[in-house]
Amino acid sequence: MISNYLKTLCLIFIIYIGGSLPASAILTQNPASKTLTLAEIDQKIQTIKDRQNLSDELKKRILSSYAESQDYLSEAQAQEAQAEAYKQSLLNLPIEATHLAKQITDAENNLKNHKPEKLNIFPTDELEQRLIIEKTSLSDLDSEINRIETLIGDLLNRPQLIRAKISEIKTKQAQSQHEQQTLVVHSIDNIAEKESRQIWLDSRGRLFISSLKALELENISDPIRLEVEKNRIHLLNLQREQLSLLISDLDNFLLDRRQQEIGKEQAELLQAEKAAAGKHPLIQEATRENMAYSRSLQDITKSMEQFQAQKNELEQRYKQLEKDFQSAEQKINLAGLSPALGNLLREQRRNLPQAKQYSKLDDSIQSQIAKASLEGFKLEEVRKNLADIGTVLTKRLAQQLPADISDIEKLRIRTELRMLLNDQKELVGRLASVYSEYSQALGDVDFSLQQMLSVADKYRAYLDERLLWVPSAPVIDKYFFKDVLTSLLWFLQVENWEQLFSNFGMGLATHIWLVAVGFGLVFAYWQLKSIAKARIKNLRPRRIGGSQYHYHYNFNQTLLGLAHILILAIALPLILAWLAVVLALSGSGDAYTHDFSRGLLAAALSLSIVQFFYLLFKPEGVAEALFEWQSRNISLLYKQFKWTRFVLVPSIFIIAMTGSDVFSEHSYALGRAAMIISMLVMTYTFHRLAHPRYGLSNSFQKNAQGWNKALPYICYIIAVGIPLAIIGFAVEGYYQSALEIQQKLIISLRLIFFTALLHEVAQHWLAVTKRQLALRNARQKRRQTEQAAVTPLESGFMIAEPLLDLSKINQQSHKLLSTIIIAILLLGFWMIWNGILPAFSILDRIELWQHSVILDGKETLERVTLTNLLISLVYTGISFILVSNFPALVDLLSVGKFVMAPGSRYALIHLMRYLMLSIAFLAIANELGGSWSQVQWLVAALSVGLGFGLQEIFANMVSGIILLFERPIRVGDTVTIGSVTGRVSRIQMRATHIVDWDRKELVVPNKLFITDQLINWTLSDTVTRIVVSIGIAYGEDIGKVEHILRDAITATPLVLAEPHANVVFIGFGDSALQFDIHVFVHELSDRLEVGHVLRKNIYEALLANHIEIPFPQRDIHIRSYPPGVTPVAPETPPSVQATAGG
């Protein structure tokens, strides 16, 4: 200890000599400059504020430099004070270390020479009070230990942070020196600004020097401080152990004393019970009650002792787990994860306690707490009743004491009963107090249990994040095959097999009943084999007229067929399991035999599953007979199961056999080779089964459209990639990680195959049920027809029973089945793979860049890691899928529920697409470090800039959004905008597409629909009016004309009866009487046809009734004639003359 102290002093001396050099060297870099004080800078600030010959902008720059200089000086002074504190601590730490060493020595001696205190001289109440005080002290001591442990962790990580900080400050210092040189070379015109800039650089330089000195002194003092804190926590642990011993002594002593008191009282009560044998029933009843309370006290005390022992055990386990956790953290932080440490931590990971292991204890604690609370409540009621002994005594005597008893006997009974009731009152009070302590003790045990499980869960999560990426075996090199050969020779070693057969015989000899079990299995298989094969053969589809039919099957036949396959599949696996049980029960301690048995069990399980599906997919077997699968897919599955079982099952046997720690070298050689071979086989099998063109998805690939076409390729890459990734893990030495992933892959495959089987069984049940419902409907129809034929008409109408809607039932049942299957798969995959997901948190340590965020008003740097990038890619993929397939989703959700107009559907789809894109953009920006508070300024700047540069485009885009929300036009509407009339085909962000009657597609900017006059022919009502104008010659009968016109309207198809058509006499023309015909049509497309037919009908009707449709006429008066022209008056018909004259 003294030598360590002298070394520490020497180190301090060297530190003072060497540590002062860098700072002095830095201080001499610029001897001409002198840093001002805060008061002097305040003076200069006031001077600048008072000067009038400086512009506002220049004054603002100068004042800003002075303000920053003040901040730099304040921080520099704080760093200098911190450096002085570190210097002082360097002087005080050795003294403190010496004092701690003496205290540690004393504490260790006290523990070695620990003698229990003489507690029997103190009363029970005082001991109980002291126990509470000591437990409080222990809690405070635990808090202090946790604080120092956190401090030690920070001190361990501090050197790396200090080095990074020193590097950062030196970089900034170099930049400051460069700015200093720039200031000298490029002089500033204004002297005041130059001076402020110089002071700013000097203050900043002083801050750098002070920070470097403080960091260097901290870096020097931290190792000494770390040793001091380790000694301090060692001392606290010793004090805690000593205090725990005292608390344990107090607990045990109080329990012993309480047990002794209860035993003494029990003996007294037994004596009293014997003495009361011939006494009055009142005395006997009170004595029995006291005995019951005394036994309850004894039982509760024993239970408290048991739970106290469990609490001590749980606390010891908790301390050990916490110690292991801290040790693992320190080792990983200091030296990283090595293969040896990884194997040790894996073993600790396997031995960590789990909640299910303590479920019985937890249930017992909860039930006992409830029981203690109930009993405590009952005892409180009894205490209240016994509060007034006189009243209870009088009541009992009045109820049970006969009236003819003598006064002397009555007085004697009253006296004895009073004594017994007083004892009972004391017993009830003590029992209530003990139940209260019992509840508290149970709470302490529950707290210790939850505390231990919490640490175990944290430790497990910590290891799960790291162990997957820790190599557990050497990388495969050129010596690997030699190691495999050595392991194979070990496996085939004659001595091992002789010992194996010897242990097998020993197991049969010591457990004769196993012989009977073995013969029973062979006999049962021999008897059931032929029956099962015959039943399976009878399931093949029958042929009638050259075609197969399956209607004779019921659901029970399906279950029986699967049961028969299971019988044939488990025969050999049961034999293997029987061999494993015999070897396991042989009682031999041979590791080879034990691991051989474990390998047989693993192989038996795998063989039973593989054999089951091999028989299921046999051509013309159960899968084809019952489920009607495609022959090509059944043949493909059958061929793969036929040969892979001969490779996978032995590989699983070898992997399981060599998986123990005893044969780790063989596991890394032979076991790893078996795993690689099995994964190569699975890779080829997945290649054959999942190939998009030649695999099971061949028919899906041919019929798929859109992005569904890429789905088989994605599944193929995943299916083939996972086994190859497992092989890569094994080759690179991550053998334990590869084993864990392989195990989860195999369990996932089992889940997929059994879920597919469940789906097909359910489909078959639905098909059988559907046939039964169809037959029920057919019988019901026939019954109704027969009843209608025999029922006379006079008997009235017959109410028909409604038929079942089979199509709706079929649709709903298949949708429900698909939902259940998807839920089973998702839940199963989560349960299988959730244990390995924390390992991918290592991606969160790969930093890509940093961005600044404001937390609690302070700007801090937040990392953007590879996890954020992957999450953003997931967001991108999900957004792409949702946006691309949202129309199909709308159709699926709306079909059968409500009718949606095309315009409404179009608006909903586009608005939701814009919303989803906006949400995706914000989510991706948030993951990559672009929060809205930062993006909003960019959005505002872009909006302003682009708003001026692209004013019209932005106006059209905003107008497009208004059109989608306000919906003055919809897709499918017929509109007139300006001189353009047509049907709206698309509403996009910038423009709307209109197809006119010439089938030309016109692109109209959206702004025109908002600012110009718009006619929407079909917005609220598609009914439109057609106006046909016609002139009738003067002199015709107006009433007759109106009647003819109405008849022509009636004869015109597609004219609506409501609103009514009108014939209106609108005026006197130059040459005709003017009529307007108003008719209404339902659709805009009817206007041309109705106008054509109506005009044709009017013309034909007027012509048939000899009603003249005049044409415009003009009179020309010739004032003079050219020379040589003689006018000749033509003969004019009388009718024309009359018209001209009129």
UniProtKB/TrEMBL annotation:
Residues in domain Mechanosensitive ion channel inner membrane? 513-849
This protein's GO CC annotations: plasma membrane
Mechanosensitive ion channel MscS C-terminal domain boundaries: 1026-1109
Keyword presence, Transmembrane helix: yes
UniProt keywords, alphabetically? Cell membrane, Coiled coil, Membrane, Transmembrane, Transmembrane helix
Domain Mechanosensitive ion channel MscS porin residues, every copy? 44-284
Q: What is this protein called?
A: Mechanosensitive ion channel
Domain Mechanosensitive ion channel transmembrane helices 2/3 as annotated: residue spans? 913-951
GO MF, one term, reads: mechanosensitive monoatomic ion channel activity
Family membership: Belongs to the MscS (TC 1.A.23) family.
Q: Which InterPro entries does this one have?
A: LSM_dom_sf, MS_channel_1st, MS_channel_C, MscS-like_channel, MscS_beta-dom_sf, MscS_channel_2nd, MscS_channel_C_sf, MscS_IM_dom1
* Protein location: Cell membrane
Q: Which residues form the Mechanosensitive ion channel MscS domain?
A: 953-1018
